[in-house]
Specification:
With 97 residues, this protein is mainly alpha-helical. 52% of the residues lie in helices and 0% in strands.
Length: 97
Amino acid sequence: MRLPETSISHFKVLPRIAVILVLPHSNASLEWLFSIIRKNKTDMRSSLKLDGTLYSILCMKTNNPESITPCFKWRPDQDLLELSRKAAKTYSDKHKS
């Protein structure tokens, strides 16, 4: 932005300050995520794949923090239970020898 009728910049330092202000000031959220992964993918459970079970665990933990509803208190509703039963029966029927 230039001052009217001159070639002098009005805000010389502003672009430099703007770059500094948009940089993240902390990597705490990434450290938190890595911590969750470390707690779930242990030597005893090393076969968890990121695109499978581990991803599902991470989704549950990030979308339903234990501060809201601890996992041991969570109860599925009847609709979810019924859908699960139907899916299990369908799977069993297709894989019978």
